[in-house]
Queue: 2 jobs
Job 1
Amino acid sequence: MNYCAIDFGTSNSAVAVPDGAALKLAPVEGAYTTLPTSVFFNTDEDTREFGRAALGAYIDGFDGRLMRSMKSILGSPLADNSTDLGDGSAIKYTDVIAIFLDHLKRSAEKSASAPIDRAVLGRPVFFVDDDPRADQMAQKQLETAARSVGLREIHFQYEPIAAAFDYESRRTNEGLVLVADIGGGTSDFSLVRVGPERMKQVERKDDVLAHHGVHVAGTDFDRRVELATILRELGYQALDPEGREIPNRVYFDLATWHLINTVYAPKRVSELGLMRHLFTEVKHHDRLMRVVERRLGHALAAHAEEAKIGVAAGGETVIDLDEVEDDLRLAFDEAQLIEAGQDETRRIVQAARDTVQTAGVSMRDVSAIYFTGGSTGLAFLSGALAAAFPDAEAVFGDRLASVATGLGIHARRVFA
Ligand SMILES: Nc1ncnc2c1ncn2[C@@H]1O[C@H](COP(=O)(O)OP(=O)(O)OP(=O)(O)O)[C@@H](O)[C@H]1O
Ligand SMILES: [Mg+2]
C-alpha cells in the first residue's frame, strides 16, 4: 500500500504523495493543491462541502453549519464535545476533523491511483502553549481521527522541520537555517543544520538545534484588525453615560471564529438588546443588533482577514460594511495594520530570537531565514523578522505548500 504526507493546517491543508522517485501535491479541490481547512454541513441539501466550496456554500446562505479552524480545538476539553448542525443532529469536533482527513486521504488515493494506509502527519511545535499534557492529548486526538479513516501507520513530524527539509532540497552547501512558519494559528520556528550531505540521513535529531513556537499568528492579526476597525463602529471600547467601557465580551466573541455562534444564542441576543441604555451612540447598538440578528459575525471576521491580506504587501483598501448599514465604509491601510498588530509582531519576533538563544547560537551564525506559511505575506512582519537577523539571507518558500512537500520528503525517508 501507498503512503501520503498530510499538512493539516489551521487555515489551509495539503497532502503530498509519491510520484515515482519524486513527490507531488495531490489535487484536493478541483485542480487546486491546497484548500481551506473547512467543512460545510449543508442541511438544506444534506451534503458536505470542503474547502473553497464549503466557504462558498456558507456565504451563499445555504442552511447548515460551517466548521473552520478545527485544528485549534485539539488539546482542549471541547474537542470531544458535540456541536449542533442546526437540523437537530450533532457531531463531535474530532469527527469533523476525521471527515476532513478522510477527504485529504481520498484525494491522495485518487492522485496516487492506489489505496493508502500509511501517513506522516505534520504537527505544530506546540498544539497548546505551556501545557505538555494538553499538547500530548492534542496529538493523540489527531492520531485517533487519522486511524478512524483507515491510516494504520502514522508518524508525526514538526511542521517547521518539514519546511527545513523542503528548503534543504534546494541547497548546495551546508548552513544553519531558521525556519519561520507563520500560519493561521501558530508561529513556529526551528533552527536546523542543513546541507546536501546531511540530507542522506533519516535520523536528523542532532541537526535540529532548537524549536519553539507561539500561538500567535494570522488569525490574531485578523482579530486585532476587526476590533480596531469594524467592531469599533459597533461600540467596542465606547464609553457608557457614566464613562465606563461598554462590556466588551461580545466584541471579543465576535472576533473569535469558534465563538461567533455563541453570540447568536437567544439568551445572549436578548441580553444584548437590554444593553441599549449603555450606548451613548445608539447607532452602535443598532449595528450590533443587526449583526447578531442577521448572523453577520463570520462575514465580519472574513472582512477583517480580507482587509489584512489586502494591505499585506503595503497599500490600502476599503472595508465595505454595506450589509450592516448602507454606505458604511472604512478605509484601512498598512500603517493601521502595523499598529493594530504591534503586540503580535513583537511576540513573534521574540519567539524567533528565543529559538536561536535556546540553541546557544549567536544571531550572526544564522545563515538564512526560510519563510513559509500564509502570514509571511505580511511584509512588515517578515521585514521585522529579517531585521532581527541582519546577517541571514531571507528566503521565501512556497507559502502554502512547503510544509506538505517537506512532510513528503520525510515520509519518503520513513516509508521507502
Ligand atoms: N497574501 C497573504 N498575506 C498575508 N497573510 C496571508 C496571505 N495569504 C494568507 N494569509 C494568512 O495566512 C494564514 C494562513 O496561513 P497557513 O495556510 O500557512 O496557515 P495554516 O498552516 O493553516 O495554520 P497553522 O500552520 O497555524 O496550523 C491566514 O491567517 C491568512 O489570513
Ligand atoms: Mg501550517
Note: The two ends are 11 Å apart (CA to CA).
Job 2
Amino acid sequence: MKLARNQLTLNGKTVSFTDGETILTLANRMGVHIPTLCHDPRLDPVGACRMCLVEVTGFNRLVPACTQKATPGMEVITENARITRHRQTLLALYMTDHPQDRNAVEKGAPNQLLDLAEQYQAPLNWGRMLPIRSARDDDRNPYILFNADLCISCARCVRYCAEVERVSAITLANRGASTTVATADNASLLDTSCEMCGGCIDVCPTGAMTEKMPLTRNHKPERELRKVRTTCNYCGVGCQIDLNVDDIANDGRGMVVKITSPPPGTTVNDGNLCVKGRFAYDFIHHPDRLTQPLVCNENGELQPTTWDDALEKAVNGLQAVAKRYGADALGFVSSSRCTVEENYLMQKLARAVFHTNNVHQCAAT
Ligand code: SF4
Ligand code: SF4
Ligand code: FES
C-alpha cells in the first residue's frame, strides 16, 4: 500500500502525522494508549524511563515513543508479546527499589508506577537490589516532602521546575544507583529559588514528592479522597483546583486535606498552580475562621450578633462618616476572593449609593 509523505502505520492502521510530531503524541491523538512515566506534555521529552518503548520496523531495538519523531512510511507496533515482556521487566526492576505496599504511599497522590506494575502484572519477587534510601524529612519547608526511597530518577520534577516554573530549585544529584533529587548544597527548599508552587508533587509519578500538610492534619494515607472541582479565588487568574476531601475526617463532617491541580490540558491553568492556590487552604477549617457576624459592644468587645444587626450598624457608621467628612472620606475595598458579580455590586455601592470613586480590589479586576 502506498502511503502519503505524512503517513505511517500505527498497529496496522494508516494514520497521518504532523511535522515534528512524536509517536507518543500521534498515538495519544489517535486514542492509542502507550504507558509513560517520565513524560509530561508540558515538558521537553527526554526518554529517561523507557516505559514507552514501542516496536518500529527496521529498528533492531525498541524505541521510545516519547522522543522518536514520526517519519513517513514507519510501521509502529505499540502492543505485542515482546513489548509486554519489556514493560514487565522494566517495572519489576523499578519495583526492586520501590515500596510495593499501596498503603505505604498516599492515596490521591499520583502513582503511575504502582498502577502500571498492577496493570502489567510485573513480577514482584525479585527482591530488593539496592539499599533503601531515606526520606528527606530534615527540610524545614512547611509544604513539600521528598521521599528518596520512592524516587525512580525520572527527573519530571526537576524538568518541571526548570521548564515550566523556570526557577531550577532542584536538580538530579549523584550517579547510578545513588542518583537522587537534591538542592544546591542540600539546602532547605526555603533557602533556594523554590517558589513552593508544588508542581514537583503533581508531576511525580511515584509519590516520592508529597505534601506535608495532609500529614499534619492526621489524614490517614490509606483513605480514599473525594475530589471536588472548583475555582481558586485568590486572584483574578481563576485557576481550576480540585479540593481533596477526606469524608471521614473531622468527626465525619469531612475535611479538605489537600488541593491538587486538574490534569494538564484540561483547564485554563494547564495543570499548574501557585503557592496560594495549592497550599493556602488552612483557613477552611481554621478555628479562628469567622462563621457569624461580630459587632463591638459598649465596652469595645466583639460580640456575636445577627446579620440584620451587623448590617444596620455598618450602614449607620458609613452614613455618619459621609455626613461628617464628605463621601470621599469613605473607601471601599473588595477582594479577589469575591465573584465578579460581588465586586460589581461593591463598586455600585461605592459610586451609586455613597457617591465616591474610592473603590478598589487587590487583583484590580
Ligand atoms: S521525585 Fe518523582 S518526579 Fe522527581 S525524579 Fe523522583 S520519581 Fe521523578
Ligand atoms: S492558583 Fe495562584 S495564580 Fe491561580 S488563581 Fe490561585 S492565586 Fe491565582
Ligand atoms: S515516557 Fe518515554 S522514556 Fe519515559
Note: Residues 36-39, 47-52, 64, 66 surround FE2/S2 (inorganic) cluster (ligand 3) (CB under 6 Å).
